[in-house]
């Protein structure tokens, strides 16, 4: 992969920006359709306290499998591909998203700046 430009591994700033866009969108959807109230106490919210994360996971899985990137990825000029360049399929977005929801794999990077969630799923987040 090239060191910079289209096809290079996406840098942390873009990744974090995309994550914020996606989570903000998931929160707005959860407020509008699932009754999530960010000011409600967790004890009173019940399952609704997890609504933004559930919406986030669904958005990630659907958009990774169909558009090669979440809305945030695509807005910031990134896409998720397999290392061999083929379609990511369905199981890779599921595994990648489940690991991303647990956060820790996403903040552990290798020397190539690939997150552990990408390494396990056999994917890479690239520019372009």
Automatic annotation (TrEMBL):
Pfam families linked to this entry: RDD
Transmembrane segments: 16-36, 48-69, 90-109
Keyword list, A-Z: Cell membrane, Membrane, Transmembrane, Transmembrane helix
InterPro entries linked: Pra-immunoreactive, RDD, UCP021697
Membrane topology: Multi-pass membrane protein
Boundaries of every RDD domain copy: 10-122
Locations listed in the record: Cell membrane
First-listed, main subcellular location of the protein, grouped into a coarse class: membrane
UniProt-recorded name of the protein: RDD family protein
Native source species: Microbacterium commune
């Amino acid at each position: 992969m090239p060191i910079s430009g289209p096809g290079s591994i996406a840098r942390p700033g873009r990744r974090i920006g995309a994550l914020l866009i996606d989570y903000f969108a998931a929160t707005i959807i959860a407020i509008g359709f699932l009754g999530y109230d960010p000011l409600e106490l967790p004890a009173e919210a019940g399952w609704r306290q997890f609504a933004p994360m559930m919406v986030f996971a669904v958005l990630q899985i659907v958009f990774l499998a169909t558009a090669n990137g979440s809305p945030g990825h695509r807005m910031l000029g990134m896409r998720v591909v397999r290392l061999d360049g083929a379609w990511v399929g369905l199981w890779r977005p599921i595994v990648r998203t489940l690991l991303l929801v647990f956060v820790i794999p996403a903040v552990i990077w290798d020397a190539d700046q690939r997150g552990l969630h990408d390494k396990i799923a056999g994917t890479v987040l690239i520019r372009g």
